[in-house]
């Protein structure tokens, strides 16, 4: 979407971190920005900041883990700005732990926000983007944890790999529809995600502070400035770039994963069980 000026963007998790970075960059480029976040106060603060610069913005409280809440946010976006062209499915929470021992409530929380939040975003907003025929763009925030398995992050990895897979399919499904697609795979970015337990609702165990031995927040503080990520995402939308990586220095991790996958094919080519077996080749779609 080369010309973003005057277009409307809805950003989940837009009150903090990379979502706020995107809100700043999109608004500075002339877009009308609707900030959606579970935390209304910082969302309103972000709107005040943008409006003070003469930019167009509004906010709505949304819980991305609820389809009803997402639909209400979509309705408010249309009521406020008339149309929507861009959705950034960005809200997310960090849950560390091993897949086999992470509490079921934490598993459910991270799946409901990081995965179902993206699904609900697509369901509520893509029909609205498709309806006006002016084209648009869908960005979903995954992670480098959607590219490679990270030790001690099984549940988080599961959500982010799912988002990458879903967006690869989304891009293929909409290649001819004038709706671009991107998946944002950040490395380490200085945001508040180390404190995401602050927003854990009661049904998942309630708000929780990071444990004393959890040094994620300190490590993140040394990461990339989230406003740089906002500019990067804007550039990707304008250039219709699908994979958005914030740290080119991490390319070797993906290369190593690809080499291990190729080695799996080499093993399959030489294994006894498949020796001489005829196969049809190809895949559905
Ligand atoms: N910071 C990093 O290093 C990093 C790296 C890779 C991926 N990510 C991903 O980036 C995205 C943005 O996170 P961030 O790092 O900017 O963190 P952040 O905590 O600064 O921002 C996340 C925002 O999402 C909001 N949020 C949380 N739960 C919500 C819900 N249920 N509904 C609506 N809003 C909700 C929070 O209130 C917050 O404003 C996340 O999807 C995260 O997984 C972050």
CATH architectural category: 3-Layer(aba) Sandwich
Count of structural domains: 1
Strand content: 5-15%
Bound ligands, named by name, code or SMILES: nicotinamide-adenine-dinucleotide
Largest sheet: 7 strands, parallel
Radius of gyration based on Cα positions: 20 Å
Number of helical regions: 8
> What fold name goes in the CATH topology slot?
Rossmann fold
The level of helicity is 40-55%
- CATH class reads Alpha Beta
Distance between the termini: 26 Å
Task: Provide the CATH superfamily.
Answer: NAD(P)-binding Rossmann-like Domain
Q: Count the strands?
A: 9
What's the overall average pLDDT, rounded? 96
Based on CA inertia axes, which overall geometry fits?
Answer: globular
Structural class: alpha/beta
Question: Major sheet: order of its strands?
Answer: 3-2-1-4-5-6-9
Low-pLDDT regions: none
Q: N-to-C SSE series? A: EHEHEHEHEHEEHEHEH
How would you describe what is shown here?
The strands form two sheets. The chain has a seven-stranded parallel beta sheet with strand order 3-2-1-4-5-6-9, with helices on both faces. Strands 7-8 form a two-stranded parallel sheet. It starts with 7 loop residues before the first strand and ends in a 15-residue tail after the last helix. The chain contains eight helices and nine strands. The chain is 45% helix and 14% strand. The protein has helices at 17-28, 40-52, 67-81, 104-131, 154-173, 216-221, 226-239, 251-270; strands spanning 8-12, 32-37, 57-61, 86-89, 136-141, 179-185, 189-190, 224-225, 243-245. Helix 1 (17-28) packs across helix 7 (226-239), helix 3 runs parallel beside helix 4 and helix 4 (104-131) runs parallel beside helix 5 (154-173). It has a single domain, classed as Rossmann fold, CATH 3.40.50. With 285 residues, it is an alpha/beta fold. The protein is globular. The structure holds nicotinamide-adenine-dinucleotide.
């Amino acid at each position: 979407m080369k010309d973003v000026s005057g277009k409307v963007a809805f950003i989940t998790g837009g009150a903090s971190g990379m979502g706020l970075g995107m809100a700043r960059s999109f608004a500075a480029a002339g877009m009308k920005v609707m900030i959606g976040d579970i935390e209304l106060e910082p969302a309103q603060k972000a709107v005040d900041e943008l409006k003070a610069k003469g930019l167009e913005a509004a906010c709505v409280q949304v819980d991305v883990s609820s389809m009803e809440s997402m639909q209400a946010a979509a309705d408010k976006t249309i009521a406020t700005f008339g149309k929507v062209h861009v959705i950034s499915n960005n809200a997310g929470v960090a849950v560390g732990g091993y897949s086999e021992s992470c509490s079921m409530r934490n598993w459910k929380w991270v799946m409901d926000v990081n995965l179902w939040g993206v699904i609900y975003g697509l369901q509520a907003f893509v029909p609205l983007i498709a309806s006006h025929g002016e084209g648009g763009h869908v960005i979903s925030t995954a992670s480098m944890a959607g590219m490679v398995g990270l030790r001690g992050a099984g549940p988080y990895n599961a959500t982010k790999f799912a988002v990458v897979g879903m967006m690869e399919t989304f891009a293929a499904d909409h290649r001819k529809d004038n709706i671009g697609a991107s998946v944002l795979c950040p490395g380490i970015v200085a945001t508040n995600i180390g404190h995401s337990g602050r927003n854990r609702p009661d049904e998942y165990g309630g708000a929780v502070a990071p444990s004393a031995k959890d040094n994620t927040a300190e490590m993140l503080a040394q990461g990339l400035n989230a406003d740089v990520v906002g500019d990067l995402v804007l550039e990707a939308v304008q250039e219709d770039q699908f994979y958005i990586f914030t740290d080119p220095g991490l390319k070797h991790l993906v290369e190593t994963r690809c080499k291990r996958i190729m080695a799996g094919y080499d093993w399959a080519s030489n294994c006894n069980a498949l020796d001489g077996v005829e196969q049809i080749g190809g895949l559905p779609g």
